[in-house]
What we know:
The protein is 31% helix and 29% strand. The protein is an alpha+beta fold.
Amino acid sequence: xxxxxxxxxxxxxxxxxxxxxxxxxxxxxxxxxxxxxxxxxxxxxxxxxxxxxxxxxxxxxxxxxxxxxxxxxxxxxxxxxxxxxxxxxxxxxxxxxxxxxxxxxxxxxxxxxxxxxxxxxxxxxxxxxxxxxxxxxxxxxxx
Length: 143
């Protein structure tokens, strides 16, 4: 189902969670619109079990967040505009590279672009607007 079809089939006033899932080059991804479920600790730990996960949150309030997990452990987590303030068990792969190429505290859009460039360089994947608007498995959850 394309994004436009999903928005028509599951209007904002009827559905709290819209989760769209796809795959690229051996990686799976989920795109959440509206109220996110994947940010909960239990979901993140379960999804990263026996694999590595990358999570990008682009908040509606301008706050962005990146997290990399493996086997249920948080390896690194930071706000892309400030890759110096990193938490997690390490190694700090993405934040180290981002810190070298991007000046902290500049625009959020520039930070997300730099982050997605680093992810592409290290993992060979790009989930862009065209992919997110295209046909994906779609689930709607009502509260």
